[in-house]
Amino acid sequence: MTDTLIKVDLNQAATDNEQVHNRWHPDIPMACWVNPGDDFILETYDWTGGAIKNDDDASDVRDVDLSTVHYLSGPVGVKGAQPGDLLIVELLDIGAKQDMLWGFNGFFSKNNGGGFLTDHFPSAQKSIWDFEGMFTKSRHIPGVRFAGLIHPGLIGCLPDHKMLADWNKREQALIDTNPTRVPPLANPPFASTAHMGKMRGEARDLAAATGARTVPPREHGGNCDIKDLSRGSKIFFPVYVDGAGLSVGDLHFSQGDGEITFCGAIEMAGWVHMKVELIKGGMAKYGIKNPIFKPSPIVPTYNNYLIFEGISVDDDGKQHYLDVNLAYKQACLNAINYLTKFGYSPAQGYSLLGSAPVQGHISGVVDIPNACATLWLPTDIFEFDINPSASGPTKFLDGSIDLPIAYDK
Amino acid sequence: MTDTLIKVDLNQAATDNEQVHNRWHPDIPMACWVNPGDDFILETYDWTGGAIKNDDDASDVRDVDLSTVHYLSGPVGVKGAQPGDLLIVELLDIGAKQDMLWGFNGFFSKNNGGGFLTDHFPSAQKSIWDFEGMFTKSRHIPGVRFAGLIHPGLIGCLPDHKMLADWNKREQALIDTNPTRVPPLANPPFASTAHMGKMRGEARDLAAATGARTVPPREHGGNCDIKDLSRGSKIFFPVYVDGAGLSVGDLHFSQGDGEITFCGAIEMAGWVHMKVELIKGGMAKYGIKNPIFKPSPIVPTYNNYLIFEGISVDDDGKQHYLDVNLAYKQACLNAINYLTKFGYSPAQGYSLLGSAPVQGHISGVVDIPNACATLWLPTDIFEFDINPSASGPTKFLDGSIDLPIAYDK
Amino acid sequence: MTDTLIKVDLNQAATDNEQVHNRWHPDIPMACWVNPGDDFILETYDWTGGAIKNDDDASDVRDVDLSTVHYLSGPVGVKGAQPGDLLIVELLDIGAKQDMLWGFNGFFSKNNGGGFLTDHFPSAQKSIWDFEGMFTKSRHIPGVRFAGLIHPGLIGCLPDHKMLADWNKREQALIDTNPTRVPPLANPPFASTAHMGKMRGEARDLAAATGARTVPPREHGGNCDIKDLSRGSKIFFPVYVDGAGLSVGDLHFSQGDGEITFCGAIEMAGWVHMKVELIKGGMAKYGIKNPIFKPSPIVPTYNNYLIFEGISVDDDGKQHYLDVNLAYKQACLNAINYLTKFGYSPAQGYSLLGSAPVQGHISGVVDIPNACATLWLPTDIFEFDINPSASGPTKFLDGSIDLPIAYDK
Amino acid sequence: MTDTLIKVDLNQAATDNEQVHNRWHPDIPMACWVNPGDDFILETYDWTGGAIKNDDDASDVRDVDLSTVHYLSGPVGVKGAQPGDLLIVELLDIGAKQDMLWGFNGFFSKNNGGGFLTDHFPSAQKSIWDFEGMFTKSRHIPGVRFAGLIHPGLIGCLPDHKMLADWNKREQALIDTNPTRVPPLANPPFASTAHMGKMRGEARDLAAATGARTVPPREHGGNCDIKDLSRGSKIFFPVYVDGAGLSVGDLHFSQGDGEITFCGAIEMAGWVHMKVELIKGGMAKYGIKNPIFKPSPIVPTYNNYLIFEGISVDDDGKQHYLDVNLAYKQACLNAINYLTKFGYSPAQGYSLLGSAPVQGHISGVVDIPNACATLWLPTDIFEFDINPSASGPTKFLDGSIDLPIAYDK
Predict the structure, then answer these.
(1) Residue A403 to residue A63: CA distance in whole angstroms
(2) Cα atoms found within 13 Å of the Cα of residue B228, Cβ hemisphere only
(3) Residue contact A216–B306, C-beta within 8 A
(4) What would the mean pLDDT of D359-386 be, rounded to a whole number?
(5) What subunits make at least 3 CB pairs under 8 angstroms with C?
(6) How many residue pairs from chains A and D have C-beta atoms closer than 8 A?
(7) First CA to last CA across chain A, in angstroms?
(8) Does the structure show a pLDDT above 90 at D67?
(9) Cα(D373)–Cα(C257) distance, rounded to whole angstroms?
(10) Which NCBIfam families match (chains A, B, C, D) (predicted)?
């Protein structure tokens, strides 16, 4: 039986677990050590550490304290790992905690986090997803059911001091361009809610003062939210500190490309069974700056898609220059609008795009001035036919069910 | 035998072919008419109308007159089509012209068009790709060979006058923000090289003065450069004018997501066998603004990928806010750098990313301040193993072959 | 432009074409020669040489002279090929003749050929399939349309004298166990309808007297009718004679595993673009007796299946021992019966299983006394939903259309 | 948390578990009851109930008492199920027991069970496979590692008395044709080792005397050993008795089509999470005799294959008539012989074909007198390149490792 090196108790506060942390800092002590070639299991909280409940009230999403996320399990020290190595991590399997066979998706209030389409969906909403073995469905979004492409939203190794300083410097410089923006452009270190693993006292306070927030993906990987970095995939991580310091969390039962709803994918607590190995000096040998990975040989075969296009012209008809974000926004809005013709509310459509295995492709990025992005909606996840036809569309849903909403107080 | 409604002679100038045009304008007369339910064949020039040659000299790429593109076959009138309808176009098959069984990929000079990585590749270069049935390979990029996912880079219906006016207005507004930029932010109408199909005299001059350039994708589809809109796919186009006015061109033997090299994919002359049908009033029924489509049931099964990540921090270490373009640029640069470890030149790597069936995914777009984009490189297209390993990498190429380059005069 | 080394004129009798033959014999002269590394095109007749017409009368199927088939294009001599080599044949592309954009499927009369389910379908019937680019549909079987997985039913190299003698001897020994059986157990050489390519006079008569019939697959490959040996695949053929002598014919637009209808798949005239190379001494190096091959990277993605099981108990309830043929027969009959619930006639169901890309798997072959075979019916090829449900099934067809039938005279 | 309705303790004899049985008989009492719509978990023994050990000695395979298999968990009663209904079983998930993260594959002695290639491999041998999350590898077969396509080898509902009588009658009739054959043609009821669940005393003895053996697949499904009936698939079972009586066992971590090694696939103890529903009167509505099923949307994407052909001519050169079993045997032997060129022993090759996700297709079954079967070997499961090339093959293995063998005493 494989050793579970980090356990989490969902009835215990994440901040009480010394093998958990919510900031990136090179001084966080290793939570445990392994050898290259070892395989082991790490349990994880959901990214909020249990802040979102399985109920029909979105006020928890509205009120969440985003300075507390993400609760990561680790860091795991790998013996012999040195700066410049590549740490190979194979995700042998991933699953949900048996006492939490559900997950959540939601949109933050525009005043507390926002999201990709926050201008269209400014209030906190959520949907709850039940897991049925490999499958999931939501009581808040009837008519869809699909297999999960389970993956960690967040995984990576500790930065060294130099890299950490760079992160803080460049992100603060961005914040300084518009420091009062809501939502903010970036999040600076924030000591009071920092959970630094085993660190205590002055050392903890010192590290907490500069510990990088976990929200953005960075050179080390981190919160990449790549849906295809799923169980069965093999990742090659840059190593910056002795022992590497691998941490993981923010597990997703399923996610659409972009994780556009921000809160988030289908978020869950769970466990990761992984195996580690080293390529000594691999960063230079392979010219690696960011992680690279090989996707899993086991993936859902939802190959029937309806594909929506978007271009970089905004809702007001203003032309932007090769802006893929805007093009993808338009593709998402086009898909959401389409889904309403079958009876979904816009919020249900938005939630679905964040939760289901939709693909977001950068389709054209040179044809000035318009970028073209495509959103691939798998049609086999629906229990009815959502393809266009001469006789359609049919409203399969009567509108009696919608996502809970919690307006700002 | 299916009727070929538009023929092109590669030995004749595209501008001499009255069933070809290179601007969008509602007044361009239909080149031919069909009925809903008909299938027919249209031949097309390559997008430049033959400006790029099958040789080892990139000066043709450097000197190309971009005001002349794209040479489109059409418009095809569909009887009974009215504004507000959806025109269903099924791409029954697509192929190369038998007298041009090769294609080209290239990078424009930064001073004449540029491209996605023009700051890294400022000079004109090109690669020539030979077709072997379903497969292609290039004498300029050894060690790769792959099946084509053949598609039209450009396809769509004529805009109406209102839409055309909107396009010209919003694009000019963008140009006005930096009218001397090189490369330009957008291209305004340009009458002298406009080819308006059958139009002649004053009518032609009037339309040419406002005819929209064909480079950007727009609401009607147009130059979307979506590699998955391939033979076998079915597209639902908005109709704006009586008869729809469907035009097609810019055929690609293969392309990577983003068509990052701009000049372009693997560009070819060829033919499209298509079938049209109508959904009356379909735009309102389905809430369609941009085209939607169903991809082909026949696609290459290159399922082994090496995936590169990129984040929105630029080469100078400056932090940008959720900028997917930049993140994809970084992912591309990471992939190019990786390929150099196996012996490819950076230019070969760049060309490969524009030509091979690589995927570009919008992986994370909410984790402030960093967007995360991923570039999926199919490893089965290489004749040797490009996966990372403890013993690698091996330089399979000796550097004796590279892409022709033509420096600015 | 690639050279077409063998041309066929569908208005000319196949027996008048000297680059065509319908028997296997080492003395048939090469129709043309190529070098290793060459690519070239061979045109082919349909397997019957035009005996079956595009009409609604199955008497041509009933009356066909099976001693005349299959009309093969070749043999192609490959310079330097010697016995013991492996001949690599890459199928670069395959297509239909432009003047015959349709194909046929049929069942022979039990008294003239029979078929897999001849006891259930003893009379000649046929269906005609029209090609629409990559797709096909039949006026005789409404409600289905699918992309072709185009392949040669028959391809292989000439046997040497020793191998030919072995074939004739072992097949005659089988015939001798029941020489009057209808349909026969095997077909011996039959000189009068033998077409030996360029051979004339006494030499022709001598070879015709022992030339092996082309119906069965044998060690050299031959009439394997493997649907996955499709365009884009790469085959490694044993070489038995100097020059190899590669012949090809019996092109199929599509076929189900087993080609159960015998007459046949969706049979067509067409062309094959192929490339040849050699592995010297490859038979011994790789221990090759029968051909091996790598399937194409381009295949239809019809991944939604309804799978039918069959076991080796016959219609009378008699138990047979691990008989996969019988198990597959039962699986086929189960599928046909199921399809009748949606309105198809049994004959339409049978024809569909022979024509569409159904899979036939040898699922269990050790669980005495029952073999288990499975038939995989792709559900995406139907224009309506044929999955079982609590509310179904629905008769989508009214029975007004069926396959033409021609009873024995 | 989902209820586990049947638990098995691997340290307890299977015969001591009243919710387990090893014969089919309508009188076996339901082990537990569920409602339509319920999902629940059943744990299972490996098919032998623990007879095969994780060691390097094949004497346990040689000496196994085959009259004791298969140990099935159930029968599960489904409230409201009646004869003529279809029982829908969705396999929500399947996994190995945490205290047995390994499986076994083996060949029986020809004198005790035999197997598909028992004439070539007459002695008992075995290989042990370790599970690493979704993946498996064997210390007895170096150089391969693959993801499991986990499935139950055996699943189905209780027969009624009439069906049971038919089974026994027809199988005895077969046995009677050669009652002393080794291995036997079929296995008749055998009371002494029958485990009839909760049944005791006279009732048990009576039922045991006629309880059908579990080895063959039959009309109800049963031991179909269909590798694609994997987790995520949905099966429609005929119901013969009130309550249906669903039983499951013989879990496989992975298997090749045919389960040619008989002992067996990669056999494991584990658990099945399933959900049941009913289609009232479904057997008649859909014309169902044997189960039908829809495969899982989650499958391994091992799409690169090397395909071996076999025809129905035996090792002595004797011609058989359209015998798919023989053709598949030849294809298997061809593949095994090929693998020896890379350093595998024949026994390793044989074991691999039984264990890995190889496909066995009935490719041609009408081309008298030869059937053609194909064996599809996925090449991505190997850690080295096993494709043919002009420079190969390379012996990657030195022959120092082989499967344990136990000769008959």
Answers:
(1) 17
(2) 28
(3) no
(4) 96
(5) A, B, D
(6) 71
(7) 50
(8) yes
(9) 10
(10) FormamaseFmdA
- Residue B134 and residue C98: Cβ atoms within 8 Å? no
Shortest distance, CA A301 to any CA of chain C (angstroms): 7
Q: How many CB atoms lie within 10 A of CB D99?
A: 10
Alpha-carbon distance of A218 to A158, in angstroms, equals: 11
Mapped onto helix, strand or coil, the DSSP state of residue C58 is: coil
Rounded to the nearest angstrom, the minimum Cα separation between B60 and chain A is: 20
State the pLDDT at residue C349.
98
Backbone angles phi, psi at C175, to 5 degrees: -55, -40
H-helix segments, A181-309: 201-210, 282-286
Q: What is the C-alpha separation between A378 and A146, in angstroms, rounded? A: 10
* Residue A378: strand pairing partners: A305
Cα separation of B274 and B38, whole Å? 8
Enumerate the residues of chain C whose CB falls inside 8 A of the CB of residue B254. Answer: none
Structure tokens that stand for D56 in this block: 């390097």
Of D144, B377, C339, the closest CA to residue A292 belongs to: B377
Instruction: Choose the mutation target among D4, D94, D101, D132 for the interface with A, i.e. most A CBs under 10 Å.
Output: D132
- In order of their start, the domains of chain B are 4-294 (2.60.120.580), 305-406 (no CATH)
Triad A245, A249, A251: Cα angle to 5°: 145
Q: Does A147 touch chain D (CB under 8 A)?
A: yes
Q: Which of C99, C132, C273 to mutate to test the interface with B (most CBs of B within 10 A)?
A: C132
In chain A, residues with a C-beta closer than 8 Å to the C-beta of D135 are 92, 232
Chain C residues in contact with A380 by the CB 8 A cut-off are: 304
Place of tokens 């036809």: A389
- Kindly provide the ipTM of the predicted complex, given to two decimals: 0.96
Rounded-to-integer distance, Cα A311 and Cα A333, Å: 11
**Does the beta-carbon distance from B132 to C380 stay under 8 Å?**
no
Option in C132, C299, C300 nearest B275 (CB): C132
- Nearest-Cα distance to chain B for C131, in Å, is 10
How near does any CA of chain D get to the CA of B149, in Å?
Answer: 18
- By DSSP bridging, strand B39-44 and strand B141-147 are unpaired
Choose among A2, A134, A275: nearest Cβ to D92.
A134
Query: Does the pLDDT of residue B1 top 90, yes or no?
Result: no
Average pLDDT of chain D, as a whole number: 97
Determine the residue of chain C that is closest to B3 in CA distance: C98
Integer CA distances (angstroms), B364 to A228, A265, C75, D103, in order = 11, 11, 57, 39
Residue A380 near chain D (CB below 8 Å): yes
In angstroms, what is the C-alpha Rg of chain A? 21
d(CA A138, CA A144): 8
Spatial distance between the Cα atoms of A107 and A117, rounded to a whole number of angstroms: 9
- What pLDDT is stored for residue A1 in this prediction? 79
Helices (H) and strands (E) in chain D, counts: 6, 23
The single residue listed with the structure tokens 């029954």 is B92
The neighbour count for residue B371, using CB atoms within 10 Å, is: 30
- Tens digit of each residue's pLDDT (9 = 90 or more) over A303-316: 899 999 999 999 99
Asked if A262 and A115 count as a contact pair (C-beta separation under 8 A), the reply is: yes
- The answer to whether the CB of A114 falls within 8 A of the CB of A264 is no
3 state DSSP class of B126: strand
pTM summary value: 0.96
Give the tens place of pLDDT for each residue, B314-354. Answer: 999 999 999 999 999 999 999 999 999 999 999 999 999 99
* Predicted confidence (pLDDT) per residue in C247-298, tens digit: 999 999 999 999 999 998 999 999 999 999 999 999 999 999 999 999 999 9
CA pair distance B115, B138, nearest whole angstrom: 21
Residue window 256-285, chain B: list those with CB within 8 Å of chain A.
Answer: 257-262, 277-280, 282, 285
Give contacts of C282 with chain D, Cβ < 8 Å. Answer: 388
- Hey, is the C-beta of C380 within 8 angstroms of any chain A C-beta? yes
